[in-house]
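Structure tokens please, single chain.
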Amino acid sequence: MYTKKYFDKIVLIVFAIGLVIALFWKTTPVMGYEKLLFDDSYVHQINLQVDDVAALWEKEEYVMADIKIDEETIAGVGLRIKGNNSLSLSKEYGLSRYSYKIEFDHYEDGVTYHGLDKLTLDASFQDNSYLKTKLAYDLYQRMGVLSPLCSFAWVTINQEPIGLYVVIEEIEDGFLKRQYGNSHGQLYKPDYKRLEYDNRDIGLCYLGEMSTSYPGIFDHAKTNADPEDKKNLIESIRQLNLNKDLEQYVDVDHTLRYFVVLVFTMNWDSYMGPTGHNYYLYEEQGKIQILPWDQNLGFGTYCFEMTDPIQDNTYLINFPILTPWYENVLENRPLFTNLVESYQDEYLDLFDTFLTQNIDSQWLKTWFLKESSMIAPYVKKDPSAYVSFEEHELAVSTLYQLCVDRSKSIRSQLEGFSAITLNDLEENPKQIETSVNIPDLGNLQDLENAYDKNQILKEKLLSTSPKD
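Here you go.
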């Protein structure tokens, strides 16, 4: 009798503990799309069925479409063209090669592709290698930075091929569940309204305790942030700017790892550059993380399309890792400047680890061989490609050599032979020489050269209708 009584109590205790765990434990669901669409060992097949292609291009808003991913069809999804500068330039040059967003639950709540609510089909704008985005995200993931999944797909519209695209997991509901579990924090995509505005809020400068002082953040919330959530984020920003108790308010290790990859890839169309955007900000219980987004202008190519572009390839390859942009910008980027000031040794150690594991090792060469050989047959037949296949091959070899030379420069900086800050350049002008020509990765001239083939494709697409 006593044994049974004690046994019953034990069962009740175990049940209660299990109930508490079920209610409060942060579970991470298995997301089926990770091993389906984002199996990056082969090129996927995606067909988009659209009633009116002209409306899709002209409206720049969601239209209803069906999508077939490999052998699976999902009807009634939202489809639209995407991009800011890339979209306006594509239209200006009369191209039909657009990037697209697909929102599975746009017209019907709860519709997903095995848990994925949204994805991007990226046209590799100014990326003749087709590899910059995939390489950047793979490097982030190898450094332990939470970042989107990537794969390649051969894309058709109404069965008409439009080219090889990079498939990117959008940082929204599916991503949050995959990375943080069902019980996650708040997500923002900071962005400016106009470049001539102050925009220090998206640089994470402290501008007071009122949430209205941060329109670039809170007007771009991806989750339903309540007043308490906003208060928590503003307090984190305040402490960041005070450079106090950073580990309580910032995921320091994750953020340093993010900046290592960002600085290596010379992506100045980002938090680090003049615009200060193209990143996501995640906040949970008053602690923030920065997440990477939009990598197509990385590896120095952004500098060649600025109003006053930097034309010196050697100068860009050797850009110092402690001051990876100019002072007038960095003084409004406290997430970088304050963390690196307080954790400089950790930052430099992480750079050493990054180079050793990814660039100085066999991994980089193996990665390039695998990815370039996998996509080559599709690049050869891409009807909207910006460049010829020979120019694509040149871009691939340029990207590889850029990584090698950038690694040599950073290694020289770490060992004290080359300037590690811009101020040091005045006293120590030694630089690693490079034969790399960064515009070979992609520039505006390629858009002009792609006009004729894009016109042929445009005529075909505008005459199509959905087929079973």
